[in-house]
Input
Amino acid sequence: MRLKHYAETGKYTPANLALVKEPVEWDYPQKGETIAGPNYTFRISAPQDARRVEICINQGPWQACRKSAGYWWYDCRDLSRGPYEAQARVYTRTWMLSMLRRFQVGG
Output
């Protein structure tokens, strides 16, 4: 019933918050993934009404993603070896933040 309420209203309430998936989801890289080389394309799932999606890598500046095929993408070049963390944010009517995504670059 609470999930039905969310589906009908699209509003988060304390009663349905725990039943709803995170509105900003990392598809790639996956949690703890090791990327083989210095070039990588990030993929993020966001609500259909998203107007803008950006990512931030290692607390650097926010970078705009491009929308294609129902997803948001960011092409990153020249990643150095080592650990990374990234965060995504999505703008619909307000900004929503993703959880941190930790990954590594090897090779």
Observations:
- The longest helix spans residues 2-9.
- The mean pLDDT is 83.
